[in-house]
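--- STAGE predict ---
source: upstream dedup step, 1 unique chain passed
mode: sequence only
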Amino acid sequence: MRQIKYEGSLELSPELILPCYVLEDGTRVLSGRGMQNSLKLGNTKEVREELKAGDNLGRFLSSKWFKELIVNDYDLAHFKPLICYKGNQKINGYEATTLIDLCNIILRAREGGVLKTERQLLVAAQCEILIRSFAKIGIIALIDEATGYQHDREKNELQKILKAYIAEELLPWQKRFPDDFYKEIFRLNKWDYTVTGIKLRPGVIGTWTKNLVYHQLPKGVLKELYDKTPKTSSGKLAKRLHQSLTPDIGNPHLEKQLISVITLMNISRDWKEFLKYFNKKYGQQSLDFKEED
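--- STAGE serialize ---
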């Protein structure tokens, strides 16, 4: 049985509270009932009568209409409920990022004019509220905080901030920036995301990556990363900056920032709108457009 180790609640507003859990294997889970209510898939009477978790949500996710929306991007199994246990109590939930994927699908359907009924448009409005709320921090970090999971993760919490973020040894290279980060940059700028287009991608992407992601780490971390990372004889970086981040604090913060940025990209129609959302969240930024090695 998949047992719950931590539990908490995401209070996105006084009326919108999502129970959440972390399982023994580290899987983050959202309550099926909480997701159902947050998407307005149960009316007030049904909620009052404690509609069984997942009833309406399950019907929505297994409907022909929803299957047609995801056929090219997801396997239906991605949206199947996850059964877990609090002691002997059975809880129906969903892997946490399922809600983000669901919201993105619905919002893109609305943008494409696919949504027709009043209920579909209501769900889309709720998806927009949710996606904007989660964009503030990033759903994984948010659940870790709500459940107390970060206290197990942050083993170096009493050390100075730079020592907590910067590893003593250079870590082996692992892919840290997901393809979606670059796909969204190309989409928002209307660039050609093909092998040829990627080879010709502007060098400014490196500068944007620094401003959007690394500059949002605690003050002084980026400078320390540059100092720590090996250089070639010509002064160029010989390794990736993230290879100098600690695995328990530095990399989780980097991943949290990436989730936040990608979420803002997902809800933006173009680069200008994305910068507006980014500046509103992080304060006015000056994103340099010059190329950089």
